[in-house]
Amino acid sequence: MKSLLTAVCLLLTGCLGYHVGPVKPGVLHDVHLMAVPTFENKTLLPRIEVLVTDSVIKQLQQDGTYKIADKGNVDAVLKAEITEINRTPARSVRGNVLATTEFNLTMHVRYKLETRGGAVLMPYAEVVGTTSFFVGTDVTTDERQALPLATEELATHLVTQLSEGW
């Protein structure tokens, strides 16, 4: 009987620190509804802000830690700007080091989280999304097709930082 009672006590105390559900950063404990206005585009690539904003909203919805709402009745507003998009050569053609067959694409977004009144909950932080793409005949078209992949990775990193704190 005593060994059974000891086993039950050990089983019940083994899970004392476990928490079921979202584990938000402490400063965001009271945030449940979030507004995500269209990000500001500081790059020379036109119309990229809608793609990035939509990817972040979809990732937030998939994560489920925060609900998306309009700006009028939210706990926090995510303000962000796309600061740069870089394309760097990754692999060159054999026999011709000036011709590139593969590029790395990197996208940088700077964001902060504010209350509806404008008080800063999380100061500016930066998140990066990357991908690589091979070049056919048109580099610009190939880059445009690779942008959604970098955007998805960026959105995953951003939402992870908001929902888990890292």
Please give the alpha-carbon distance between the first and last residues.
46 Å
Number of domains: 1
The mean pLDDT is 87
Q: Total number of helical segments?
A: 3
Beta-strand share of residues: 35-45%
Helix and strand element order: HEEHEEEEH
Query: What's the number of extended β-strand segments?
Result: 6
- The radius of gyration is 22 Å
Assign a percent range to the helix content.
Answer: 25-40%
| The CATH class | Alpha Beta
Structural class per helix/strand content? alpha/beta
Structural description of this entry:
The protein is of the alpha/beta class. The chain has a single domain, classed as 2-Layer Sandwich (Double Stranded RNA Binding Domain). Helix 2 runs parallel beside helix 3. The N and C termini lie far apart (46 Å). The mean pLDDT is 87.
Task: Give the SSE map.
Elements lengths: L1 H12 L19 E3 L4 E2 L6 H16 L3 E2 L7 E18 L2 E19 L5 E15 L4 H26 L2
Parallel strand pairs: 1-3, 1-4, 2-4
Antiparallel strand pairs: 4-5, 5-6
Helix pairs in contact: 2-3
